[in-house]
Amino acid sequence: MHLAGKDAATHVVVPGSTPLIISVPHAGTAIPEQLAPRLTPLALTLPDTDWHVAKLYDFAPAHGATMLIAQYSRYLIDLNRPPDDAALYSAAPKTGLCPTSSFAGEPLYLAGDAALAGAEIARRRAQYWQPYHDALHGLLTQTCDRFGYALLLDAHSIRSIVPRLFDGRLPDINVGTNQGSACTPALTEALRARLSVQTRWSHIFDGRFTGGYITRHYGQPAFGVHAVQIELAQCAYMNESGTAYEAERAAPLRELLGTLVAALLALPLKKP
């Protein structure tokens, strides 16, 4: 966790030269200076961060992918939730636009902050959520104008075992396409072909994670935007008991992610 002043950037864009945009909405670790004193000691360790996801994909710009990387923690506001805070997964506990508890159910706020006022949620939405989505919308529009279509990979990770959210151990690689509605079938089949020839990591399509707000909202194949969410189990690339990045441990997974990015870039898509 690092403290951020009021003028700190909400996101970083690494520009590319292909139709592929990689969104990383949950790897941020910044907390506003004025918010930190209200958070519990546990919350300040940011246990539900998508640790090192931007680093896992940092090879992609060299291949022409654009990257959009959030800087603030999801504990401030969750960029992959709808602006009206509607639930995404009816069978699981709601984690919320402005979470007040961790994935494990522990409180994130000290006494008196069990519920956030509507005015504060609205301010966070305007100040932190909207700029990210304005940037993403702009990148998708520019990409469609240039190439006739856009590919959106929404990149995530999560601890492999979170009993409150799902049963058992999560597969290593969880591909979500909103049950096929967020992208062309050719995209799904291209990823399935690359994953099926390897045996090191388990994988599933549209299982526990079918795609969050970003995949569901922006994935509109009829209008030329093809979106997919890839949720990685963190045990596939790091020691989940800590937060440190382990380059040697992550290297094989980075190589596989490279093949998935290559599969997306090789898709022979055309303007709808």
Give a short summary of the structure:
A seven-stranded mixed β-sheet has the order 2-5-3-6-9-7-8, with helices on both faces. Strands 1-4 form a two-stranded parallel ribbon. The chain is α/β, with parallel strands linked by helices and 272 residues long. The protein contains five helices and nine strands, in the order ββββαβαββαβαβα.
Strand order, main sheet: write it out: 2-5-3-6-9-7-8
Please count the helical segments.
5
Parts with pLDDT < 50 across at least 5 consecutive residues = none
- CA distance, first residue to last residue: 43 Å
CATH topology: Aminopeptidase
Mean pLDDT: 94
Largest sheet geometry = 7 strands, mixed
Overall morphology? globular
Give the SSE order as H and E letters.
EEEEHEHEEHEHEH
Count of separate structural domains: 1
How much of the sequence is in beta strands?
15-25%
Q: Work out the oligomeric state of the chains in this entry.
A: single chain
Let me know the number of strands: 9
- CATH superfamily, called what? Zn-dependent exopeptidases
CATH class descriptor: Alpha Beta
Helical coverage, percent range? 25-40%
CATH architecture: 3-Layer(aba) Sandwich
Radius of gyration: 18 Å
Summing up helix and strand content along with how strands pair, one would put the structural category as: alpha/beta
